[in-house]
Amino acid sequence: MAAATFYIPSVNMIGSGCLEEAAKTMQEQGLRHALIVTDRVLNDIGVVAQVQQLLAAQDIQSCVYDGTHPNPTTSNVEQGLALLREHQCDCVISLGGGSPHDCAKGIALVATNGGDIKDYEGVDRSAKPQLPMVAINTTAGTASEMTRFCIITDEVRHIKMAIVDKHVTPILSVNDPHLMAGMPKGLTAATGMDALTHAIEAYVSSAANPITDACALKAVTMIMASLRDAVNDGKNMQAREDMAYAQFLAGMAFNNASLGYVHAMAHQLGGFYNLPHGVCNAVLLPHVQEFNASVAAGRLKDVAVAMGLEVSNLNDSQGAAACIAAIRKLAQDVGIPAGLRDLQVKEEDFDTLAANALKDACGFTNPIQASHEQIVAIFKAAM
C-alpha cells in the first residue's frame, strides 16, 4: 500500500443547532468582514438573512454575493472576487450546497494567490493558503464543505475544471440539519445519490486505504438506511441528520482516496449541457461499476454487504451484480431519471465527452483504466 495523506478541515461541526456555535468560533478566530457566497434561492427564502443576523450578534460584518450558478462558472468567481476586494473582506463564508462552496473556494484561492482561477486547474497548483473560508452546508451530498476539490465551469471551453488543492480546504465546516429541512425532494435525491457515488468510487479507487474504506462503507450503510426517508419526508430530522453524517463520511473517503470514471464522465455532462451533477452521477454509477466489476468485484461485494444485502452465499461477481442492482433500485425509488436520454444528452457528442473525461483528474484513480472506446460504450449503455 502506498503512503497516504489525509486531508480534512481542522474544525467540523455536525448536528442540530451547530450554526450558532460556528458564528462564535469565527469571532474567536478574529474574523470581522465576511463575503457570503450563496445563490439567489437561499437569499430569497431568508436563510442568508438568518446567517447575517448570527454574524452581526458576534460583531462580524458581511456582504453577499448571490449570483452563483448551479454549475459555478469562471465569471461567478470573478464577480465574487470584485465584491470581496471592494469590501476588503478578511474571510469567505459559503452558504448552500456544492455550487456556492466551489464558487467560494475559487474566490478565496485567487484572493490570496492572484491570477485567474483557470491557473489552478489540476493538482496543488497554488503557492499560498486561500483566504480563511467557512463552509455552511445546506444539502446532504457533495461534501464540498470539507474537501480539497473545487469544480468550476470554464464557459469558453464548456468543460468543468477539476481543481484539487490542499489550499482550498475550508478551515471550518458546518452541517446543521435544520438548514437542510427545506431542501426539495429532487435535490435531496440528487445530492444523496452524489454522496453514495462518492462512497462507492472511493471504496473501489486505486488509492483507497483502511481509513477511507471505513468511512466509505459506513457512509453506504447510512445512505441506504436514510435516503428514502429523507426524500419522502423532508421534515424527518433523524433522516436529515443521518444523511448529513453519511455525506460527510463519504467526503472524508473521496477527499483522500479520490474518485473514478463516474465523476470524470459526469463533469463532462454537467459542463457541456449544464445538467445537475448528482443526477448525472446517479445515472452513470451502475454502468461504470459494471465496467469496474471485471477487476473490483470483491470490493463491490463488500459494498453490497454494507448496503445490508445477504450475499454471503454468492461469489464475488454475483455479489457485485447484487450491489449494482441495489444502486439501480435506490435511484428508481428516489425518482432519478432512467437514463441520459431523459436528460436530452445526444449520442453525437459522446466522442468529445469521452475525450474530455479521460483528461479529468478524477478518473486517474479508477480501478481499471479505460480506452476512449470503452468510455463511449459506457455513455451509450447509460442512454
Automatic annotation (TrEMBL):
- Report the EC number(s), separated by commas if there are several: 1.1.1.1, 1.1.1.103
Alcohol dehydrogenase iron-type/glycerol dehydrogenase GldA domain spans which residues?
10-177
Which keywords describe this protein according to UniProt?
NAD, Oxidoreductase
Residue span, Fe-containing alcohol dehydrogenase-like C-terminal domain: 188-383
Q: What Gene3D superfamilies does the annotation carry?
A: 3.40.50.1970, Dehydroquinate synthase-like - alpha domain
Cofactor names: Fe cation
List the InterPro entries. ADH_Fe/GldA, ADH_Fe_C, ADH_Fe_CS, Alcohol_dehydrogenase_Fe
Which Pfam family is one of this chain's hits? Fe-ADH
The record ties this protein, via PROSITE patterns, to: ADH_IRON_1 (PS00913), ADH_IRON_2 (PS00060)
Q: Which residues cross the membrane?
A: none
Task: Give the Gene Ontology MF terms in alphabetical order.
Answer: alcohol dehydrogenase (NAD+) activity; L-threonine 3-dehydrogenase activity; metal ion binding
Q: Which family does it belong to?
A: Belongs to the iron-containing alcohol dehydrogenase family.
Kindly give the NCBIfam families that the UniProt entry links to this protein: PRK09860.1
Query: Can you say what this protein is called?
Result: Alcohol dehydrogenase 2
